[in-house]
């Protein structure tokens, strides 16, 4: 089938390459000419394991190309909307400017009988509003939310754990089942529903994930008061299959371009709909999450004898999670800024997010390696659990620091190994050994 993918960022570039991989003829369209040129040259403009190889292979087949020209979508049967829906400045609500611009721009090129399939995460009610515009052109609109995780985007797209089809006609359902035929054949469950339910599935899933993380981080706060160990609590409760181990990783909490803005936009939308009371717990989920960042700064301060003024702090990690260069709402960079504001000299290192971090936070100092970030440090902060950091040799790092103090804000370092090398190890939700 001929498909267009409108918006080729983290979601759209992956979706476009994956659709070509399963045999479709795909044109990716973005308003950013630099991004389009880069993708056409086989260079993914962000870090996503496996995507460069897939992109190169798909460009080679001739089934995938990128352009800034929406007119090139005119002969496509399906148009996937993958543009951003960031948080509005100074508000909780989502900014729908890009979605509206993409649909308005597409309307003159829409063939009668074609299908617009929204993948962006939107406030409930958006799809019905857009459907009226699309239907007036003789086309159809569906909502097909996306659940991929950054760092695992290729596998998640090619082997989704479910496919959600919000549709208003049997024809739209059939077209999307044809698009995803290999995934359906492989056994991915397909949930067919109406437009608002499909929109709600997406924000409900992210709200649940955020709630699970903040739940264990709330327990972490209590563990800190009583001297208990949150990692053991998580392990023990996770053995109950009704609870499960996933997303009980206590630590610095969630960031990124999805969970934080999605729970805020959900609260804002519920407020607009007069259902704000239903989601007041998400305010607490957000507050618990943000408190973990302040607690990490406090731990660093405690390790430096009560004040960070004049101290040197080595920061390991800038991305919001490992295997991504995404720094949107990154807890690591928030902590780095907090420590700097408290008077410390901070040096940050991340294996893949340095360029993004430097652009967004030019006032922070950066180092070219983990060792250089930690040279002469009074405390090392482990904030993003990249494999490179988890496998670091604490003995070698101990040679370059001023004091062997480490805060493991992701509960991911082998603390027995670090303490055996003379490090004072502190972690969120665990007493020291
Ligand atoms: N990143 C993820 O892991 C992920 C996963 C699931 C869902 N989502 C949702 O997908 C959407 C996109 O997220 P993202 O992380 O890929 O964002 P992104 O910022 O990386 O990409 C958005 C892209 O859209 C382009 N764009 C903006 N206006 C456009 C227009 N009018 N026409 C064409 N292109 C336009 C931008 O230039 C950019 O390249 C959001 O709604 C997000 O919540 C993201
Ligand atoms: O036990 C855990 C698991 C995750 N995190 C943090 O939570 C954030 C989000 O992690 P993750 O969900 O793995 O990354 P995303 O790529 O943001 O993916 C989420 O957001 C996407 C965009 O909506 C959805 O498609 C995915 O299903 C959803 O998992 C990161 O900061 C993690 O460090 C924790 O603190 N503890």
TrEMBL record:
Residues the entry annotates as binding substrate: 147-150, 202, 247-251, 255, 321
Listed GO biological process terms: polysaccharide biosynthetic process; UDP-glucuronate biosynthetic process
Keywords: NAD, Oxidoreductase
Binding of NAD(+), residues: 30, 35, 85, 121, 150, 261, 328
Domain UDP-glucose/GDP-mannose dehydrogenase C-terminal residue range list: 314-415
Pathway linked to the protein: Nucleotide-sugar biosynthesis; UDP-alpha-D-glucuronate biosynthesis; UDP-alpha-D-glucuronate from UDP-alpha-D-glucose: step 1/1
Active site: 258
Family matches, as Pfam families: UDPG_MGDP_dh, UDPG_MGDP_dh_C, UDPG_MGDP_dh_N
Catalysed reaction equations from the record: UDP-alpha-D-glucose + 2 NAD(+) + H2O = UDP-alpha-D-glucuronate + 2 NADH + 3 H(+)
MF (Gene Ontology): NAD binding; UDP-glucose 6-dehydrogenase activity
UniProt cross-references to InterPro entries, sorted A to Z: 6-PGluconate_DH-like_C_sf, NAD(P)-bd_dom_sf, UDP-Glc/GDP-Man, UDP-Glc/GDP-Man_DH_C, UDP-Glc/GDP-Man_DH_C_sf, UDP-Glc/GDP-Man_DH_dimer, UDP-Glc/GDP-Man_DH_N, UDPglc_DH_bac
EC number(s) reported in the record: 1.1.1.22
Family note: Belongs to the UDP-glucose/GDP-mannose dehydrogenase family.
PANTHER family xref list: UDP-GLUCOSE 6-DEHYDROGENASE TUAD
NCBIfam families: NDP-sugDHase
Protein name: UDP-glucose 6-dehydrogenase
Species whose genome carries this gene: Lapillicoccus jejuensis
Classification lineage: Bacteria, Bacillati, Actinomycetota, Actinomycetes, Micrococcales
């Amino acid at each position: 089938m001929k498909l267009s993918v409108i918006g080729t960022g983290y979601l759209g570039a992956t979706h476009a390459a994956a659709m070509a991989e399963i045999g479709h003829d795909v044109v990716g369209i973005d308003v950013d000419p630099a991004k389009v040129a880069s993708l056409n040259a086989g260079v993914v403009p962000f870090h996503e394991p496996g995507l460069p190889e897939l992109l190169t292979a798909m460009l080679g087949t001739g089934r995938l190309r990128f352009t800034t020209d929406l007119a090139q979508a005119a002969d496509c049967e399906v148009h996937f909307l993958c543009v951003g829906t960031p948080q509005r400045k100074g508000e909780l609500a989502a900014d729908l400017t890009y979605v509206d611009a993409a649909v308005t721009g597409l309307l003159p090129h829409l063939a009668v009988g074609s299908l617009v399939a929204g993948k962006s995460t939107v406030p409930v009610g958006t799809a019905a509003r857009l459907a009226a515009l699309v239907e007036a052109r003789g086309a159809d609109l569906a909502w097909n939310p996306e659940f991929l995780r950054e760092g695992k985007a290729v596998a998640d797209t090619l082997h989704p754990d479910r496919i959600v089809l919000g549709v208003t006609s049997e024809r739209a359902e059939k077209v999307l089942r044809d698009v995803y035929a290999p995934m359906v054949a492989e056994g991915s469950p397909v949930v067919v529903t109406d437009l608002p339910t499909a929109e709600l599935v997406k924000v409900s899933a992210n709200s649940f994930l955020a709630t699970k993380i903040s739940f264990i981080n709330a327990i972490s706060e209590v563990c800190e008061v009583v001297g208990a160990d949150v990692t053991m609590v998580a392990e023990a409760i996770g053995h109950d299959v009704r609870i499960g181990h996933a997303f009980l990783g206590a630590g610095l909490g969630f960031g990124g371009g999805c969970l934080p803005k999605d729970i805020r936009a959900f609260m804002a939308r519920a407020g607009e709909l007069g259902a704000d009371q239903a989601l007041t717990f998400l305010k607490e989920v957000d507050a618990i999450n943000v408190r973990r960042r302040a607690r990490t700064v406090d731990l660093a301060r405690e390790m430096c004898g009560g004040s960070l003024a004049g101290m040197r702090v080595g920061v390991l990690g800038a991305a919001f999670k490992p295997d991504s260069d995404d720094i949107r709402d990154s807890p690591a960079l928030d902590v780095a800024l907090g420590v700097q504001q408290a008077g410390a000299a901070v040096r940050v290192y991340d294996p893949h997010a340095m360029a993004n971090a430097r652009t967004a936070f030019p006032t922070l100092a950066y180092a070219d390696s983990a060792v250089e970030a930690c040279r002469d440090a009074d405390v090392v902060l482990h904030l993003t659990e990249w494999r490179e950091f988890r496998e670091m040799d604490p003995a070698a790092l101990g040679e370059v620091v001023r004091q062997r103090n480490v805060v493991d804000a992701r509960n991911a370092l082998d603390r027995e190994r670090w303490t055996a090398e003379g490090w004072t190890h502190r972690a969120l939700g665990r007493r020291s050994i």
